[in-house]
Specification:
Blueprint: H1 10-18, E1 21-23, E2 27-28, E3 30-32, E4 38-43, E5 47-48, E6 58-66, E7 71-81, E8 84-93, E9 99-103, E10 108-111, E11 114-117, E12 120-123, H2 133-143, E13 146-148, E14 153-154
Parallel strand pairs: 1-13, 2-14
Antiparallel strand pairs: 1-5, 3-4, 4-6, 6-7, 7-8, 8-11, 9-10, 11-12
Length: about 160
């Protein structure tokens, strides 16, 4: 959602993205109560299914920003290497007709939902008006080879009193 991303060594990151992994902690997005318009979650560890060991530096990074007319979601898989935060995958959910990303190198403008994957950007081809945050979480898990074993999952702004 609007900031520069570091993609690190694509070959190494491609291996990290492809490996089967699982996440078993609760996923509970929390709301920033200053403005009440942002909800986020950051979680680790992710576990390598083959070795059953934690993948050092890898974590989930989810955030949602709401406006009076829409919500924008970002579901990311990142890995920290020293001081660098490297984005392996980022699913960005935007209203269908909203300008959502500008790829200056490719001279391409994206509208609606899109995916940042290992330094490339592509359209997500999702209908914002019919997809739910839970649907997005399932797409994210499938695309990143993560089995979610979380007992508790609360999406953005879940449980809020209106």
């Amino acid at each position: 959602m609007g900031e520069n991303r570091n993609y690190g060594d694509i070959s190494s990151c491609s291996h990290l993205l492809a490996m089967p992994k699982y996440f078993e902690e609760s996923i509970v997005m929390t709301t920033d109560f200053k403005g009440g318009d942002k909800s986020s979650f950051s979680g680790s560890p992710l576990i390598d299914c083959d070795s059953n060991e934690s993948i050092v530096g890898m974590s989930l990074f989810f955030r949602t920003h709401r406006t009076p007319i829409s919500q924008k979601h970002s579901l990311g898989l990142v890995v920290r290497e020293g001081r660098n935060l490297i984005f392996l995958y980022d699913l960005c959910i935007y209203p269908n007709q909203q300008k959502s990303h500008m790829d200056r190198k490719a001279r391409k403008t994206f509208y609606g939902s899109h995916i940042h994957i290992l330094g490339e950007v592509k359209s997500a081809n999702l209908d914002y008006d019919s997809i739910t945050w839970q649907d997005c979480l399932e797409i994210f898990a499938r695309d990143t080879n993560i089995t979610l074993e979380s007992n508790k999952i609360l999406g953005p702004f879940d449980g809020e009193l209106i």
